[in-house]
Specification:
- By secondary structure, the protein is α/β, with parallel strands linked by helices.
- The chain has one domain: Rossmann fold, CATH 3.40.50.1240.
- It has 14 helices and eight strands.
- Strands 1, 2, 3, 4, 5, 6, 7 and 8 form an eight-stranded mixed sheet that branches.
- A hairpin with a 2-residue loop joins strand 5 and strand 6.
- The chain is globular, with a radius of gyration of 22 Å.
- The relative contact order is 0.20.
């Protein structure tokens, strides 16, 4: 943190003198290139509104949300770093509150005051979930409705919201692919050399140069979106390479580049599929919300088969890639799975950060949705493809199924809201 603090003060002063030397272009979409450090924003999409539009006969009758709030720190800007570093910011808590309020309003026809919400037990994730509950259920919500699932019990197997942590055989590797990309393209050396030419004698290693790029979003998150001083140091091409560098870390750290990622992500995907396929859930709950961390969410995507790329090269940027971390694991990212009924037929649709995301193998329904019956068949085939959690992970115990949603705190079919 000392290095970061020194950079913050030194680079800001230097920037005053060289502000116009380099900057990304006016039309460049910075938010689509700054990965998990980015504040929450609506994801970029190549789909048009017309392609995903639903007609007036369609209604959402069940919804699932998996959400995380990424935390960050910068001791220079935090008054009490020993206490506050690695905790969420007030801005993050407000964002979670707003999501809860928006979610209740958007799915008002499905809402019930007795709805259970699930979270992994990590403190900052719990605090995020609590803030969501304030917006979702109101300030006086029943605290028993927020169920904490252990994030340290290794014997849970797949019956957890942190399945990466309960899979002993899971082995993600963020850095090797990033190093290979840097060596093949020379982009990190080029950035550090350019910065050193602007601030002679500072000693810009490739690691320090990457830290300065990270500071772009740290600053915007903490001080406000209009603070672009660090961001404007770098060019479009440098941001393109930075984005791919981050994407590689997620792809090979917790995504499809890890053989077991679809396996550990599948229990959540299967649990959602079972609920979607029930005419009435056993508890009649219609909204299912769960909270965890970014890497866990990334594995959940692969459990469903979303954002799939057959290859993710490390020697050059794949400009046509489906997986882009800036679109799916920004701070506060959320995956929403909707069951939609149109003219008495049911369909499944995914939204990630507000944008519709397609299943490559199934999009024949209205607005490129997937017919529910076909989706269930697809998931049955996927189960055979990804394998059994306990077996593949050499798990120390537990189940290969996620069953937490089967036991909400209150059965809404028996207990009416007051």
């Amino acid at each position: 943190m000392k290095t970061v603090s020194a950079l913050f003060s030194t680079a800001t002063l230097a920037l005053l003198a060289v502000h116009s030397v380099e900057a990304y272009s006016e039309g460049f979409d910075l938010t689509d290139h700054t990965s998990q450090l980015n504040f929450y924003h609506q994801a970029t999409t190549n789909l048009t509104a017309e392609q995903v539009a639903l007609d007036d006969t369609c209604v959402v009758d069940q919804v699932h949300m998996f959400k995380f709030l990424k935390t960050w720190n910068l001791s220079e800007l935090i008054p009490n770093p020993d206490i506050e570093v690695e905790n969420i910011t007030a801005l993050g808590l407000q964002e979670a509150y707003d999501v809860g309020s928006t979610f209740r309003s958007k799915y008002a026809d499905l809402y019930d005051a007795k709805e259970t919400v699930w979270t992994n037990a990590k403190e900052r994730v719990v605090r995020t979930a609590q803030s969501f509950m304030n917006g979702f259920h109101g300030e006086d919500w029943d605290t028993s409705l927020l169920v904490q699932v252990s994030n340290t019990d290794k014997t849970l197997g797949g019956n957890t919201l942190t399945p990466i942590d309960t899979c002993p055989q899971f082995s993600g590797d963020e850095s090797s692919s990033q190093t290979a990309f840097a060596q093949a393209t020379g982009w990190q050396n080029a950035v550090s050399e350019r910065l050193e030419s602007l601030w002679p004698g500072f000693g810009f290693s490739t690691g320090v140069a990457l830290t300065v790029m990270d500071l772009c979003m740290y600053q915007r998150n903490y001080l406000g979106k209009d603070h672009l001083e660090f961001c404007q140091i770098f060019t479009d091409d440098e941001w393109e390479h930075y984005a791919y560098h981050k994407d590689l870390g997620y792809y090979y750290g917790s995504g499809y580049g890890v053989t077991l990622a679809p396996t550990v992500g599948f229990p959540y995907a299967e649990a959602v599929t079972k609920l979607l396929n029930e005419t009435e859930t056993s508890s009649c709950q219609k909204i299912f919300v769960a909270f965890s961390q970014d890497t866990q969410l990334n594995a959940m995507y692969s459990g469903f088969g979303l954002n799939y790329d057959a290859t993710y090269p490390t020697n050059a940027i794949n400009t046509t890639r489906n997986f882009r971390s800036s679109r799916v694991v920004t701070m506060g990212s959320r995956m929403v799975t909707e069951r939609i009924t149109c003219s008495n037929e049911s369909y499944v649709r995914f939204r990630i950060n507000e944008q519709v995301v397609l299943l490559l193998a199934c999009q024949s329904g209205p607005g490129l949705t997937c017919p529910l019956a076909q989706f269930v068949q697809y998931m049955e085939a996927r189960k055979a493809e990804v394998g059994d959690f306990v077996t593949k992970c050499a798990s120390t115990g537990g189940s290969s199924e996620l069953t937490i949603f089967e036991n909400p705190v209150i059965n809404q079919c028996d207990v009416k809201s007051s």
